[in-house]
Amino acid sequence: MFSEPEKMAGGERSRLFVYNGGFLTQRRVRRILSLAGYDIRLGLPKSDDLVGVWGNSPTAYRGLNIAQRHNVPVLKVEDAFLRSLHPGRSGEAPMGLLLDRSGLHFDPSTPSDLETLLATHPLDDTALLDRARGAIARVHELHLSKYSAFDLNLPPPDPGYVLVIDQTQGDAAVTASNGDYARFREMLVIAQEENPGARIIIKSHPETVAGHRKGYFSDQDLNDRVSVLDSPISPWSLLEGAVGVYTLSSQMGFEAILAGHKPRVFGHPFYAGWGLTQDEALLPRRQRNLTRAQLFAAAMILYPNWYDPYHDRLCDLETVLNTLEAQTRAWRQDHKGWTASGMRVWKRRHLQRIFGKHGKLRFVTEQPESKKQPHMVWASRSGDTLNATRVEDGFLRSRGLGAELVPPLSLVTDDIGIYYDPTHPSRLEEWITTRETLRPDQKLRAKRLTARLLSEGLSKYNIGHPAPDLPTGHRVLVPGQVEDDASIRLGTSNIRTNLDLLRAAREANPNAVLIYKPHPDVEAGLRDGKIETDLADIVVEGTDPATLLAQVDEVWTMTSLLGFEALLRGVRVTTLGAPFYAGWGLTTDLGAVPARRGARPSLMGLVHATLIDYPRYFDPITGQVCPVEIAVERLAQGTQAPTGPLNRILSKLQGRLATHAHWWR
Fold first, then answer.
1. Quick check: 12 and 37 in contact, CB under 8 A?
2. Which long-range CB contacts under 8 A does 646-652 form with residues at least 24 apart?
3. Across residues 618-646, what is the average pLDDT?
4. What is the rounded distance in angstroms from the CA atom of residue 234 to the CA atom of residue 139?
5. If 0-12 CB within 10 Å is exposed, 13-18 middle and 19+ buried, where does residue 662 land?
6. Looking at the predicted structure, is the pLDDT value of residue 647 above 50?
7. What's the CA gap between 50 and 41, in Å, rounded?
């Protein structure tokens, strides 16, 4: 049994002899075992080898018999408690494994490594318990469970019901707790007796709903008080409305504890016997009383071997939560499929790669009348489109310009409005308001992300050469913008041109060193906005904005994203329009900003909403959605999303097509 640091650092390797084909055919299982120090072998073990078996599966007896015959230890392998979007029988690889040399977490006949942790580990380290509390909050907020493909748009039943949790017939966790038809029916009867007059809802197991295995309850158990729920509603939503929870040994009993319940338990799952459950049958050797954070720390941080698919290595729980956050968001948005309009031809291949994995993405000329599938539209071409999700490039986009047909590593999806249009609310505004208060784990993640962005010198496009030596004095950076851009049309009032912006900055700062930076698209001759002026002391062209921001004292802008990037670097920002980051108390706002922006988040709250909550990110190496940390790493390494032949051909014709940009933008 290893501690978390020991597992992640690696150690001595062991030969693991297996007699179950799943160890050979499931690539992810083999890889996690290898990273944990186990080399899979076929044949017969020697004295210093181990035998690997999958839980109490029907084939486990083969390995157990050989281990007994050759007197070698057994490594029992099981899926971790946060497994995947869908059940393993649907073919999805696990996010982690439980590797136990003593027993099985669900089998009370022998103490498992997890039970030993719970019984003997001090579980009193402040940092460990803080991590546990933060992770519990994230698991709840993200609606994560062993299988996390829940449709959050499905409403739970009206609150006030008692939840009785079904399990699958013949499951090893049921057998280990002496579960059978009689035991489940006894549990249902007791639930009704102990809650007279209350509605009873039987929660079906996901594998039963998927048609893989039958449950213990059937239509014969239903009556005017008892109903069955088999829709993919999040267990966290169900637990919020429940007044009682009854289970034999389901993992949902563990989640009930985390949600604040004290579930009635009729078997001996790992979470029973520690003072957090009402146990029908006590297990005498479990005498310790634990807190929820202690139970979670042992079961979710110290015990499992978690896997990072982006780096092909073992990782900590927080990395897995980041991964599942990205994956579940994509599935929940995409599983019904999409229709899409307003998408340029060159973008479609990349959009299909990002949004078409879980459901079909169908490109159409206009929004269909049918509402069977959600509809997306490129934000700048949405017009008066109703009930559509607007799509736009993200804030950490690429190494190269969108106008040069470089595909993005991030996109934002907004089902309310779009971030650059202050005339209407947006989903980003809601996120910023939500993040007015951050938990410690959220603040830490935002701080680490900001530090990485600054250390790598990353910005939206990540192009340009280092800034030249600038004149001494109070330096005010004025970023130029594309004057026909939607953020200018919708987010400005009196100051609407680059020339007017420079005049306003000069008038307010007559003795300052005014530095004007043209927009990269304008410099490339691809968009409007070029000016000739002597208002600036210096014009910097082809310059990486991150290197400029390190040398300036202030930024004056209409709506440029560079104002947000300046805030990250501690540079004062004055806005003359209403960019998404204005109006929250972090900038000096000379333009009109929406009165609805009344929240006062910290800078880290703004970072969390803008770079973690709002965008979706794409990993060009694995071809999967990913968390922001992976996108930042790929940008720092110079890794780009793959481009198709159409992009390459058009990019070579940019000079000739510049006056007809509407064809290809």
1. yes
2. 646/345, 646/346, 646/349, 647/346, 647/405, 647/406, 647/407, 650/346, 650/405, 651/404, 651/405
3. 86
4. 11
5. exposed
6. no
7. 10
Interatomic CA distance for residues 340 and 331, integer angstroms:
17
Question: What is the distance between the alpha carbons of residues 13 and 37, in angstroms, rounded to a whole number?
Answer: 5
- CB atoms closer than 10 angstroms to residue 203: 25
The letter for the amino acid at 104 is: L
Average pLDDT, the chain: 92
| Cα 481 from Cα 498, distance rounded (Å) | 7
Report the alpha-carbon distance of residue 310 to residue 289 in Å, rounded.
38
Residue 636 parent element (H or E)? helix 628-637
pLDDT at 113: 98
In three-state secondary structure terms, 348 is helix
- How big is the CA angle at 217 (ends 211 and 219), to the nearest 5 degrees? 90
What tokens were used for 306? 């978690």
Backbone angles phi, psi at 161, to 5 degrees: -100, 165
Q: Measuring CA to CA, how many Å separate 252 from each of 77, 221, 235, 542, 621?
A: 20, 21, 7, 56, 35
CA atoms of 154 and 232, how far apart (whole Å): 8
Bridge-partner residues for 168, per DSSP? 215
Mean pLDDT, to the nearest integer, of 66-70? 97
440, two tokens = 């410690």
Query: Is 164:191 a contact under the CB 8 Å cutoff?
Result: yes
**Helix (H) or strand (E) run with residue 475 in it:** strand 475-479
Which has the higher per-residue pLDDT, 340 or 542?
Answer: 340
- Residue closest to 546 by CA, chosen among 456, 444, 482: 456
Q: What are 615-624's pLDDT values in tens digits?
A: 999 999 999 9
What tokens appear for 525 in the block? 């001759």
* SS3 category, 81: coil
Helix (H, G, I), strand (E, B) or coil at 78: strand
Q: 115 to each of 118, 121, 254, 284, how far by Cα in Å?
A: 5, 10, 14, 13
Give the integer Cα–Cα distance in Å for 454 and 397: 16
**Integer Cα distance of 253 and 276 in angstroms:** 10
Q: Kindly tell me the burial class for residue 29, based on how many C-beta atoms sit within 10 Å of its own C-beta (0-12, 13-18, 19 or more).
A: buried
Give the amino acid at 643.
T
| Contact criterion met (CB below 8 Å) for 427 and 389 | no
| Residue among 570, 592, 641, 604 nearest 438 (CA) | 604
Pairing of strands 625-626, 572-575: unpaired
Tell me which amino acid residue 20 is: N
Give the Cα separation of 198 and 458 in Å (integer).
57
HSE at residue 650, side-chain half, CA atoms within 13 A, is: 24
Identity of the residue numbered 590: L
Tokens at 46, concatenated: 């020697």
Q: Are 253 and 239 in contact (CB under 8 A)?
A: no
- What CA–CA distance (Å, rounded) separates 318 from 131? 9
Dist CA 16 CA 34 (whole Å): 10
CA distance linking residue 271 with residue 256, whole number of Å? 11
Helix, strand, coil percent values for the chain (each to nearest 5)? 35, 15, 45
Distance CA 420, CA 95 (A): 37
Question: How many other C-beta atoms are found inside a 10 Å radius of the C-beta of residue 465?
Answer: 11
Alpha-carbon span 145 to 59, nearest angstrom: 27
Instruction: Calculate the alpha carbon distances from 224 to 159, 201, 243, 450, 562 in Å.
Output: 17, 11, 18, 56, 62
